[in-house]
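Dear colleagues,

As part of the handover before I leave the project, I'm documenting each prediction I ran so the next person doesn't have to rerun anything. This entry is a single chain, and its sequence is reproduced below.
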Amino acid sequence: MTKAITKQKTKHKLKRKPCLLALGAFAAGFLCSGAKLLGNGFSLGVFAVSVSGVFSPFAILGSFFYYLVSSSLTQGFGRIISSLLIASLFPFLKKHNFFAPMVLSISSCVVMLLAGALECIASGAGSYQIAFTLTDAVICSSLTYMFLSVSEEYTVTRKLRISGADGAFCAVMFMMLVCALSSLPFPLVLGRVAATVVLLFFAKKYHSIGGAVIGVLTACGVALYDPAMSANTLVFASSGLICGAFFVFNDFAGVAALLLSSIVSLTAIGVNSDTFVMFWDIVTGTLISIVLPENVISFGRSYLSTSVSTVDLIGQTASSRLSYAARTLADVRREITVVSSRIEERLREAPPHKKVIENICTMCENYDVCHKRIATTQAAFEILEDIMLSYGQLDRSDIDSYLPHCKKRPILLRAFENAMDELDFEAAGNKGAARMRELLCQQLLSMEQLLDDMSCRVSRIREVDEPLCRRVKELFEINGCRGARVCVYTNENRRRFVEGFINGGFKSDMVRLTVKLSDAVGCDLELPSISTIGKVTRLVFTEKPDLDAEISCCQIPGDGGCCGDTVDTLTLNESERYVLLSDGMGTGELARLDSMFAVDLLSRLISSGVSVKCAGRMVNSALSVRSRDESFSTLDVLHLDLFSHRALFYKSGAAASYIIREGSIIKIRSCSFPAGILADNEPVITDMKVTAGDLLVLTSDGIDEERFMKEYETIPDGLSQCPEKLCGFIAHNFALDEGTAADDITVSVVRLCRSL
C-alpha cells in the first residue's frame, strides 16, 4: 500500500494523553491539598500522590503550589514529606512486582503514620490531634485502595462499575470529592454545584433511585467538610427523589421538579446564612448541566455509569466461546499445513537418482568400488537426474559419458525412466491432494474469521442499559407493539443503538416513535432499518451521525460493448455505507459475469453481518473453484463509517482511489493480486480519517492514474458539489486512451457533507 500526497504537508500530532494525565495529577494535588475534614486540614493531597503513579511528581508540585499560595507551607510540611516518601517507594515496588492496591495502601498508611507521629512529637500535639492524625492516615490509605481497585477493573473492562464493592468504593470517593470541592474558598460551594450536575445525570438515567442516592451522598460529603451545612444539603435527597420521578415525562419536567422542590424544601427548613448560597449552588449546577454538550453526556453515559448486567455477562461468555471455536479451527488448519509440508519434504527426500541407486546399484557386486572408492559417482547420478528433469529424457550417450566404468549401463536408462514415471505419478496425486488441502485450509480460515467477526460484534457492546430497555419497551407498547423485545446498548465508539423485535408488522407512526425514543435515550436517532423474517420484524434505531454521504457512479463500456465492471452501493444504516467495485479480467460478457458474481456475493455477505475482510476471502475461494477456466476479478470496497468519520479502503488488485481535500489529493493504491488467482490472497486495507467537504473517488483501471494526479486541479470547482456530474467529467476526461474507451471505465464519487 502506497499513499502519495501532494501539495500538503502532514503535521505530527503530539501525544496529548501523557500531557493531560500530568495536568490532571497537578490539578488533583492542588485540589485535594485544600480538603478539610470537620474543619481541620486533611491529607487528601497525599492520596492524590499515591494514586498518580509515574505522574506523582506533578501531584507533589500541585500540592506544594497550593500550600505556597495559601500561605500554609508550615502546616503542610509533614504532608509534603509523606508525599515525597511515597513517591520514592514507586520504583522499588514496581521493580519487585509489589505494585498492587493493597501493598500501596498499606505502604502509604505506614508512611503517613510515621510522618504524623514525628510531627505530633515535634509540635507537642494533644490527644485529639493524635487521634485525628491516625484517622487521617487510615482514611487516605483506604481511599488509595478503593481508587486503585476501581481503576484496575476499569482498565480491563473499560467500565466504571457502580454496583457491588466497586459501587460502594465509587460512593465513598464521590463523597470525598464533594468534600474537597466544598473546601475550596469560593463564593459558591463547588461541591454542591458539581453534585447538582451529577444528580441530574443519574436522575435522568436511573430516575428516583439515582437522584435520591446522589442526594444522600452529597449531603454526607458536605457534612464531612462542615456539619453546620448538612441541614440544608439534605434537601438534595428529597429533591433528587422527586426530580427522578418527573424525568419519566421529559427533561424539562425533571429539571423544573428539582428547582421547585429545592425552593420548597429550603423555605420549609427556614432561612439561614446558607439558604441563598444553597439555592444559587443548585441553579448554577442546573445551568451547567443544561449547557453541557451531548457528546460529554454520552461519554459519561458510556464510561462513568455502567453496571455489569446479566446481558453483559452472557455477551462476554458468547464472545469467549466464539473466540475459542475460532482458535480450535486455527489449530486444525495448522495441523493440515504441517501434514502438507511433511509430504512435500518426503518427496524432496526421495529424488529419482536415489531410487535408481537403491534398485540397481545396491544389488551390484561393484557397489563398494563405484560408490565408496570413486568420488565422482554420486555427482554423476545427480547430473543425469538434472538432465532428465530438464529435457524429459536421457540418451545412452549421456550414461556412457558420466558413468563409463558402470557395468549395468544398459539397464540404467530404463531405471531412470521408471523412477521419473513413479515420481510424476506420485507428484500428480499429491498435487491434487495438496490443492484440496489448500482449499480446505482456506475454508477453515474463512470460518475462523467469521467466528472472530461474530465474537467482535458481541464484544463491541460496551453497555446494555437495562433500566432504559424497560422504559423503551413501554414506549413500544404504548405505540401498539405488545410483547416487543427491546435492547438499548452502546458500542465501543459510544454510539447508541435501540434494537427491537416485534411479532407482525409495525403499524404505528414510525416518525412519532423515533422522536419519542430520541427523547428517552438522550440523543437523535435515525429512522430505523426494518427487516422481516417470517412473522418477526426487526427494527434497528441508530444514533444519527454528523456526516452525510452523496454517492454517484458512472460507467463507459470498452469499445462500445458490454461493460466488464460492476459497481454497487450498499447502505446498512444511515452511518454505515459501502461502495463495491469489481473489474472482471478482460472486457465483455465473461468479464461482466465474474465481476457481477463478486459484487453480488460481497453485498449479500456484508448485509448478513460478515466483515469485508472475511467476505473478500470467501469471494476469493468461490472464484478459485468457480470453473476450470481462469475466473478472477478485482475487488475494491469503500467502507464509510459516518459516525466515527472513518473511511476504510479494501483493495485486491484494484486500481488507485483518491481523496480530494481542500485542493490537495491523496492517492491510495495496492499491490495485491485480484481475487481468484491465489488461494491465500490478503487484501490491502487503508484506514483514513475523513471530514465534511472531502471527495472520495474510486476508479477502475481505465482511468490514467498519472494524468489524474497531475491534472486533477483542472476539474471545475462547481462539479465538486455535484458527484453525478463529477463522475462523468472524470470518466470522459481522464481515460487511459484519450478520446477512446479501449478498456472499461468505471468511476464512483462520494461527497461528504454535514448532516442536516
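The chain has four domains: 16-299, 313-459, 463-542, 547-754. The CA atoms of residues 323 and 452 lie 6 Å apart.

All the best with the project,
I.
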